[in-house]
Amino acid sequence: MEYETVIGMEIHAQLATRTKVFCGCSTEFGADPNVHVCPVCLGMPGVLPVLNKEVVNLAIRGALALRAKIQGMSRFARKSYFYPDLPKGYQISQYEESFATDGYVMIDSDGKRKKIRVKRMNLEEDAGKSIHEQSTTLVDFNRCGVALLEIVTMPDLKSPEEAVAYLRTVRRQLQYAGVSSCDMEKGHFRCEPNVSVRPAGSDKLGTRTELKNLNSLKAVERGLRFEIERQIGLLKRGEQVVQQSLLWDEKEQKAAPMRAKEEAEDYRYFIEPDLVPLIVDTPWVEKVKSDVPELADDRAERFVKEYGIRPYDAGVLTSTRELADYYERTIGFHKDPTGLANWISTEVLGLMHEKGIAIRELKARPEHLAELFDLIADGSINKKMAKEIFMEMAEKGMGAKAIVSQKGLRQVTDEKELEDMITRVLSENPKEVERYFGGKDALFGFFVGQVMKASRGKANPKLVNEILRRQLDKRKNSPNSQ
Ligand SMILES: [Zn+2]
User: Fold this and answer.
1) What domain range is 97 assigned to?
2) Which of the four pLDDT bands, split at 50, 70 and 90, describes residue 475?
3) Does a structural domain hold residue 289?
4) Ligand 1: distance of its center to the CA of 78 in Å?
5) Asn/Gln amidotransferase domain: from which residue to which, for each copy (predicted)?
6) Is 104 within a domain?
7) Which of 38, 58, 182, 375 has the most neighbouring CB atoms within 10 Å?
8) For residue 49, how far is its CA from the centre of ligand 1 (angstroms)?
9) What spacing in Å lies between the alpha carbon of 5 and ligand 1's midpoint?
10) Rounded CA gap, 430 and 436, in Å?
């Protein structure tokens, strides 16, 4: 029997505010344990939460980034469960009256565009963090009360690849709109997929399980693949899938059920009595909207239309706002959108990857890169030299022209000089010339290579080709002159 997979995703993105959602404590990452805490986020008796307006601003941005409908009124609820890292005994979240609903993102799946629907987006506070050490458990409350945006999809995802594409897209949209850093390593972007399988073509959902503890997109893909295979295996053997939460173990590459006490399904939600309903009116939304930059996918689409580059490249160039800005700024100095798109997505990204740096740390500025392209365009340098010069630019933070004159790297375009070089190469390789005349056309490339080598990469390849062709023709027509 054939099986098909249905995946739903719950994302928690940490909103990029400096202070927590209901108190003025800092959200700084990596501080000593229990430094950023106060009676409010520790849930001491007699204190009242006060909603941080900046959190709402960012939630509005988040909803706009995922094209969701912002509800004029949403309400906070208490989600009750007892766990050591939750000192209040409940988490303030939103339940039936969500902050936003009915959003979507478009993903690329198997070369096709596919719409993934976002069911709801909720505001909530984070819990603390338990640190398990041999026989004891320590708790760090710094994360308690940090603002999260919970994003729940409809079960539109059909494969681990789609799940990863969806996560990438959401992450990009949120980062772009300045909603969250979405840094997975710091836990600023966490996801919990749930997955079920069913006989292909069936419209009844199978029993689902939830995967927790996925710290990277790779882990999401591997975890889902493992769980899908496990479920299909069970069904094939005539066994049942048990609804439960599983912890993914990246080291062991397998998922195991969580201990029973870690699961608390009965949350006994009720309306948070200490907070008034959250009213977000149209003027507020409009005000935030006017500050929101162009969304990532809108920008990618514009790149395709305005600059005529491939959708794939547009996707790469808009993977972060800084990179997209870099690209557009460079085009502002040198109008070759396709050439620059290629260069940035190969050379610039390659270098950033190799050095492990962000674009803002790259010393080769847009005007420098544009200068490099000016030099290629006017024939002063060739592409091969350009790569070398680019590496220097990135190292020294100098413009291309300065490096060219400093290193004497100008391209050889002097015809006489090239003629001499070519004559020399041909007379140094008489056997190859003979074989070339005997019909081995591929040797033409060999001659070009030898001339480029002789010029230490500085010869203008186009001229070399022309002059070489001319010289060979001449020799062929008057073989005695050899
Ligand atoms: Zn606090």
Assistant:
1) 3-284
2) confident
3) no
4) 18
5) 325-472
6) yes
7) 58
8) 9
9) 42
10) 10
Q: Where does the pLDDT of residue 116 fall: very low under 50, low under 70, confident under 90, or very high at 90 and above?
A: very high
Ligand 1 geometric centre to CA of 88 (Å)? 12
Residue 149 has pLDDT above 80, yes or no: yes
For residue 340, pLDDT beyond 60: yes
CA distance 143 to 24: 13
Query: What is the whole-number distance in angstroms between the Cα of residue 254 and the centre of ligand 1?
Result: 37
pLDDT 10s digits, 352-400: 999 999 898 999 999 999 999 998 888 778 888 899 899 999 988 888 8
State which of 407, 436, 467 marks the end of a domain.
407
Instruction: Measure 23 CA to ligand 1 centroid, in angstroms.
Output: 5
CA of 25 to the centre of ligand 1 (A): 4
CA of 192 to the centre of ligand 1 (A): 27
What is the structure's pLDDT at 482?
46
For the stretch 121-143, pLDDT in tens is 999 999 999 888 888 889 999 99
Q: Are residues 399 and 425 in the same domain?
A: no
29: CA distance to ligand 1 center in Å? 15
Ligand 1: centre distance to CA 34 (Å): 10
Band of pLDDT at residue 68, cut at 50, 70 and 90: very high
Domain C-terminal end among 260, 284, 308? 284
C-alpha dihedral (189, 194, 195, 196), degrees to nearest 10: -170
- Report how far ligand 1's centroid is from the alpha carbon of 261 (Å): 27
pLDDT band for position 480 (50/70/90)? low
Q: Taking Cα atoms as reference points, which of 150, 179, 182, 157 lies closest to residue 107?
A: 157
Residues 47 and 89 in one domain: yes
Q: In angstroms, what is the span from residue 411 Cα to ligand 1's centroid?
A: 63
Quick one: pLDDT band at residue 345, thresholds 50, 70, 90? very high
Residues 116 and 245 in one domain: yes
Supply the CATH number for residue 462's domain.
1.10.10.410
Residue 195 and residue 86 in one domain:
yes
CA–CA dist 325, 448 (Å, integer)? 39
